[in-house]
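Justification of resources, computational component.

The compute hours requested in this renewal are based largely on the per-chain cost of generating structure records like the one below. Each record pairs the submitted sequence with a full structure-token output. That output is archived, and it is also reused by downstream analysis tasks.
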Amino acid sequence: MTPLKKGTKLTDNPRNVRLEIRLTQSENDMLNDCAKQLETTKTNVIIKGIEKVSESLKK
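The structure output for this chain reads:
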């Protein structure tokens, strides 16, 4: 039996910051619709939104 590797680094950039937000029902519906259409998670939709806003601010 091979020994289990403990403490293995899983990623170079871990997502270890937790954020809680409050949304209206319509905002939540929009987020769910976006995630469904893009076939991704709500987290990924939010991250894409952050990236787009950041890019537009740099212009």
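The chain is about 55% helix and 0% strand. The mean pLDDT is 92.
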